[in-house]
């Protein structure tokens, strides 16, 4: 952390101060406070409205925190935020820490019933939200306080609602008195198989930064473009680390592939944080479009949130250079491993190696530890970022201090980890075990395939059969038989999909993960 610039071992007074502020206000608020002291006029955040310096971000965070306290929200109360990536979301994060409020990071892809259930379950006492999500709030009690984090031009400000600009303008910009205990955060799981679970983090160890920095060279006093949603773990964590290194973060409310290239070029960005689906769309623009943008400053592309196919790993590094880092982890275990560019060149699709102070182990179905090259097992992780359990009281399985990720994986001869799929995605067809991800990765390499998902569906003869759901590239004549022939030529016969369905798009959530629970209905008549 000293080498990266997060701390300066020659200034123990500064280390003590930032440690005290982190324990009191939480790491994200503390890092903005530090930036305001050490780099007050440096750019901290750029969105569609312009740029905020560290001083401006700090003072506005204070004003919002003091206003929320004055409105009757007491330390420990849960406040929900439903916002896209912009200053309103960042201010909510920073202000909640200063006021000792627990911030529930709500998913912008929620349907109304999901939203209402999560707000009730997490006992949310106020909601900060973008105007575009106003319809969702109809499902909440009318007396629940609400604040507008962003107002689109076509939306009116509802009666009784106040904008953050109004609240901040009337608030006290001085640092609030220290809360009795840190509020922390509730990060929601992806919810790809059901209602998202709440994963609270009351305290975040400073060593979490060390885990990232051990494997990813996050810039210092540079610029990061983050298009991965900040309400989810990857964007949230890397924004925090970028801020701790006094970087400027550039965010956008909606992802657009070429607009992201422009943002990288115009801001001379050193780092991009995205999900694989976004990277796929950027690569698919082709060399002519990519070549119009000066990306010579780009040193790091971090992807996470869903599987990075071997095919995309190769295409991305061919397009942008050897700057790709594949981060593997989860809301529960935090960071598990990172594949660096040279590892992705040698073994495309790998999730790499565990960072410092993290260990990965494989266990079989009878909870016995596994060893050996190519031996497939359930992936468990032990790290310095302990999981506090879900807000509904449940937790993940733990064996010998290792926590389950819910994934299956194996190690190669060099010790690189590969994820074979979710342990509950395995399809048993005619007595044979098939992990859909293997078939998906193979089909992703086939010309004419833009996106692919493979699932198991009920079958009277085999129990389950494989179904491939394909999004074709424009102007291709790829047919179902070509899909089957490609799998048959490269994998065992029992891994050949018996059904092939072509569709315009795959159902995904706001973080780019495929909603597997919705796949059986795709193409249904």
What's a quick, concise take on this entry?
With 525 residues, this protein is of the alpha/beta class.
**CA radius of gyration:** 23 Å
Output the strand order for the largest sheet.
Answer: 2-1-11-10-12-13-14-15
- Mean pLDDT comes to 90
Number of continuous helical runs: 15
Proportion in helices: 25-40%
Oligomeric form:
single chain
Describe the structure.
There is one protein chain. By secondary structure, this protein is α/β, with parallel strands linked by helices. An 8-stranded mixed β-sheet has the order 2-1-11-10-12-13-14-15, with helices on both faces. A 7-stranded mixed β-sheet has the order 7-6-5-3-4-8-9, with helices on both faces. Strands 16, 17, 18, 19, 20 and 21 form a 6-stranded antiparallel β-sheet that branches. The chain starts with 11 loop residues before the first helix and ends in a 23-residue tail after the last strand.
Defining key terms:
525 residues, eight-stranded mixed beta sheet, globular, alpha/beta, seven-stranded mixed beta sheet, 25% strand, 29% helix, single chain
Topology record:
Blueprint lengths: L11 H14 L1 H12 L4 E5 L2 E4 H17 L7 E5 L4 H13 L2 E4 L6 H10 L2 E7 L15 E5 L11 E2 H7 L14 E4 L9 E4 L5 H9 L7 E4 L6 H12 L3 E4 L5 H10 L4 E4 L1 H8 L2 H5 L9 E4 L6 H11 L3 E7 L3 E6 L1 H6 L12 E5 L5 E2 L6 E6 L15 E2 L2 E10 L5 E6 L4 E3 L2 E3 L1 H9 L4 E11 L3 E10 L7 H11 L8 E4 L23
Parallel strand pairs: 1-11, 3-4, 3-5, 4-8, 5-6, 6-7, 10-11, 10-12, 12-13, 13-14, 25-26
Antiparallel strand pairs: 1-2, 8-9, 14-15, 16-17, 16-18, 18-20, 19-20, 20-21, 22-23, 24-25
């Amino acid at each position: 952390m000293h080498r990266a610039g997060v701390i300066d071992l020659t200034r123990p007074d500064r280390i003590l101060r930032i440690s005290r502020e982190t324990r009191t206000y939480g790491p994200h608020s503390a890092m903005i406070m530090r930036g305001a002291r050490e780099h007050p006029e440096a750019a901290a955040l750029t969105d569609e409205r312009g740029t905020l310096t560290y001083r401006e971000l700090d003072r506005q965070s204070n004003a919002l925190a003091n206003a929320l306290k004055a409105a009757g929200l007491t330390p420990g109360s849960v406040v929900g935020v439903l916002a896209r990536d912009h200053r309103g979301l960042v201010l909510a994060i920073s202000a909640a820490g200063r006021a000792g409020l627990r911030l529930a990071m709500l998913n912008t892809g929620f349907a109304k019933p999901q939203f209402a259930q999560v707000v009730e379950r997490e006992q949310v006492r106020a909601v900060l939200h973008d105007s575009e999500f106003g319809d969702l709030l109809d499902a909440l009690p009318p007396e629940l306080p609400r604040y507008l984090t962003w107002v689109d031009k076509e939306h009116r400000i509802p009666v009784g609602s106040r904008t953050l600009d109004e609240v901040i303008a009337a608030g006290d910009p001085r640092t609030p008195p220290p809360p009795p205990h840190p509020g922390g955060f509730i990060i929601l799981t992806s919810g790809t198989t059901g209602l998202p679970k709440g994963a609270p983090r009351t305290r975040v160890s400073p060593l979490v930064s060390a885990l990232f920095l051990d494997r990813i060279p996050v810039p210092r006093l540079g610029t990061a473009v983050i298009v991965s949603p900040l309400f989810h773990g990857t964007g949230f964590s890397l924004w925090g680390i970028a801020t701790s290194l006094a970087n400027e973060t550039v965010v956008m409310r909606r992802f657009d592939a070429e607009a992201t290239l422009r943002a990288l070029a115009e801001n001379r960005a050193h780092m991009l944080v995205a999900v694989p689906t976004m990277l796929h769309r950027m690569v698919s623009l082709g060399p002519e479009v990519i070549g119009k943008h000066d990306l010579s400053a780009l040193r790091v592309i971090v992807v996470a949130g869903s599987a990075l196919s071997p095919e995309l790993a190769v295409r991305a590094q061919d397009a942008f250079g050897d700057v790709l880092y594949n981060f593997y982890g989860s809301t529960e275990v935090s960071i598990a491993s990172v594949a660096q560019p040279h590892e992705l060149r040698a073994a495309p699709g790998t999730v790499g190696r565990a960072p410092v102070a993290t260990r990965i182990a494989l266990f079989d179905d009878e909870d016995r530890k596994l060893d050996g090259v190519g031996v497939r097992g359930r992936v468990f992780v032990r790290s310095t970022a302990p999981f506090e359990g879900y807000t509904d009281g449940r937790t993940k399985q733990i064996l010998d201090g290792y926590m389950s990720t819910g994934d299956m994986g194996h190690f190669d001869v060099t010790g690189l980890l590969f994820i074979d799929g979710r342990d509950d995605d395995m399809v048993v067809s005619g007595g044979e075990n098939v992990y859909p991800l293997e078939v998906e990765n193979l089909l992703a390499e086939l010309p004419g395939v833009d996106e692919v998902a493979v699932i198991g569906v009920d079958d009277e003869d085999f129990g389950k059969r494989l179904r491939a759901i394909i999004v074709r590239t424009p102007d291709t004549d790829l047919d179902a038989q070509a899909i089957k022939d490609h799998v048959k030529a490269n994998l065992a016969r029992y891994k050949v999909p018996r059904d092939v369905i072509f569709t315009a798009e795959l159902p995904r959530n706001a973080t780019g993960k495929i909603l597997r629970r919705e796949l059986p209905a795709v193409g249904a008549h």
